Amino acid sequence: MAVYKRSYKSYAGPMTAEWSRFWIIPRFAWAGLFKQRLLTILYVICFFYPLGAALVIYFNSNMSFLRQYVPVPDKLLDIGNSFFFAFTTVQSGLGFILTALIGPGLISPDLMNNALPLYFCRPLSRTGYVVGKMTVIAALLSLITWIPGLMLFGLQASLADQAWWNANAYLAGSIFFSSLLWIMVISVMALALSAWVKWKVVAGGLMLVVMFVGAALGEMVREIARSDMGRYLDLGYNMARVWSSMFRIVEDTGSITLEESIAVVLAYSAVCVLLLMKKVRAFEVVR
Amino acid sequence: MARGHPLRTAEINERMNSVIELDQLSVRLGNREILKGLTGSLQARTIGLLGPNGAGKSTLINTLLGFYPPANGTARIFGHDIRTGRNAIRSVVGYMPENDCFIGNMSAVTFVRYMAELSGLPPEQALERAHEALFYVGLGEARYRKVGTYSLGMKQMAKLAQAVVHGPKLVILDEPTNGLDPPARLRMLKLIQEMKASGTMHIILCSHLLRDVEETCEEVMILKQGRVVHISNLEEERRLNKRFLELETFGSQNGFLDAARGLGCECADLGNGRIKMVLGDGVDVRNIYQLAAERNLQLRRLSNRRDSLEDIFLRAMEN
Q1: Which residues pair with B274 in a beta bridge?
Q2: What number is the ipTM of this complex?
Q3: Sign of CA dihedral A175, A178, A180, A183
Q4: What is the pLDDT of residues A189-222, one digit of tens each?
Q5: Prediction pTM value
Q6: CB B117 to CB A21 under 8 A?
């Protein structure tokens, strides 16, 4: 390459719209994330279950096709709220593992290298930064939760009769809102931990701790104090309680009401948002 | 065209010409008042921000960038109020922080491109400008290396590249020569002078190194304990210094002073043959030599009195 003197030139070209700039953060983050082979493999695995579920839905409505080759009953299984509840639970679990892998690496490197002033000296707000980082997780998780969920729902609706549609139309909203709630909660949790814990492995581990140790503590309190109050510590339980209600699954839920479970989920999220916004600043003020 | 009130128009014109206008700006961090009612207007192409450690230089920069909220008063950059026009300010400003600031797991070209896109450049232009900026600061050959592996001097240059990549109207350089060896320092100062010479950019140089500021800046603001203690136009001072003479004569003056006054010079006889003189328009030193020769007056010493930045700074600190 020829080496020649370069002088400073100002820029007078086109500019992008200000609202669209939060999208730059996820674009650069994904480029870095998918260089990791383990993550790419895990992400591909996340699509196996939706693919299998699509086959089940298809064959369930076309048993005559299968009957040509093997003796099978009229229906493989009943496609309804339990089917989509199971789908959402499995995919959300995979999404949680994915988030534990990618979430902790989103903010901590910026904090470790003091990069936040470089973001915030540009026309990008703290909210824009956090939304951008959340989009990294939310978009990846959407692709394995509510988007395939709604596609499966659409497939089933197209293959089933009007009666199925009349009885199960609400499931579209259930799939969408339950996944969205889960994505929001674990995204802010991952980002908050990433902002407060510098080591990625430790932050990823802490996500598991919050989820499973919270459940264990909750059970301990239940056993020792013989009270359901311990379940307030169990985020997974409360989330499942909210989902059950959304999917109209009847379960023995103890004395914790739906409203209380919603409050617990919202409280967890609010604490995470507060912790996150406390740390995401250009400079920390030493008082 | 509608005519505004003359005073108001003058005020607006001054604001438009000002790079930075401070209007009773106070900043509190916790219980401490760090900046105390700063007032002043800075208009030059290169502005030095001077002061001892803890004077409030970095706090002022961070406040101008909207990182800290003002407790009282306000400031304007190119007429944009820091309270209401934060995004407008950030769109036209480039910032090179004092501390190590980078994204370690990115190559320099990706890092600078990323910053350019966040400043609003479309992806293709951002990539092109990132390459240009890195070549400009002398990191062309190392642009595909991760920034985390750079030496301190290279990191400083990468920080400069990200600050200028989007072609800002104003670049704020916070201690840009910190940690640089002499050749790297000279290179940094040369780059600053080149940017100034481009005529498209204003520069604020925050430093405690008087020499760096003296070599690059046209105007200087000196802070002490959170207050502005001096604002001075160095260019103006340099121009005035050139017109100022200090003479030591020997022998009878024979109307030398009157003759000099006749040429339009202002003179002050300090006694013992010492004279201070401000040269009149169209008069140069050659005319003074001529006057002295005509009167057989010996000029034992003739010097331009030069108030160095160090003199100005020390005086400001004493005040």
Answers
A1: B248, B271
A2: 0.86
A3: negative
A4: 999 999 998 888 888 888 888 888 888 888 888 8
A5: 0.83
A6: yes
